[in-house]
Every structure is written in C-alpha cells, then in structure tokens.
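Morning!

This is the sequence you dropped in the shared folder:
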Amino acid sequence: MTYNEWPTDSVPGLTKLVARLVRAVIATLRGIGAAVRARPGTALAVVGGVLALHVFLPPLVLTVTRKPWTYFAFNPWLARLPDYLVSSVSLEQKLDFLSRVALFWFTADGPYGFPEWGFAVDTMDLAPRAAWSAAAHRCSPSPASSSPGCRAVPSPCSPAPRASLAPPSWSR
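The structure's back. Tokens below.
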C-alpha cells in the first residue's frame, strides 16, 4: 500500500453503508418530487407558508417579546433597479451587489432615538426558497411530462411499479 491509498478494509461494510445511504436519499428525493407533481397547489401553498413564516415570524416575535415595530419600509433604491441592470457596471459587481441588497426591513425605535431592534430581508433570504419553488414546479403534474429534465414517475398505485423507485430495505 502506498502513502496515498485508503485501506479498503479499515471499516468493514462502509461501502454498503454509503450505498444504502445514497439509495435512501435518492428514494426520498424521488418521493418528494412525486408528491410535488401530484399536488402542485398544495406544495406551492406550503412553500408560501414557509416563506411567510421565514419573513414575518422574527418581527412578530420581537414585537411580542421586546417592543412593537414602529417603522417598515421597502428599499426605495429598488425603483432604480432596471437602470442599474442595464448600466455599464461589470456583471461580477452587479451579482455581488444584488446578492446582498436589502429588500425591506422592520425597526422599533429605542428610547434614545436609535433603533432598539431591526430585521431586514435581503435577496439571499428569499433566493433559496424561490429557486426551490421554481425547481419543484418546472415539471407539469402529468406523469407524461415532456419538459426537459423531467422524468415520468409512475404512480404508487400503478400495477407494476419499477423496482428502482422502491425504498431501500432497512432490515439486515
């Protein structure tokens, strides 16, 4: 054995364990995909509810536990966003700025004129959820979807389900 080789017998059954874990993750993702395709409206409502909780729950908790919010604002600069996007600024600078721009915020005035607390929502708060939502809804609910990247997944009630879609056995 050379210095950069990993001993294959160091952990017995490691490759089988990793393979089972990968199969379990794939089966879970396929199940989630099938559920989203079966009920896209419900999935969209859940994504919207989670997004609303993510955005509005922190200010509500701060309002209840500390002090009610006294100021809410959308970023007034967003009105100039189209001009900025077509400006001569490099694409790298545009992406850097747009990845961290605040969209809106809440604040509560403190006793000395400074905010007691504040909560801002920026693009990186919303981007992962929007990307997940777009990826989840790019396929039509029909199993015979012809969208690129979408595969037909048979219904769990179909008479002959494919063996690769079955969850892995957890018994030894």
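Headline: The beta strands are 71-74, 102-109, 115-122.

More detail when I'm at my desk.
O.
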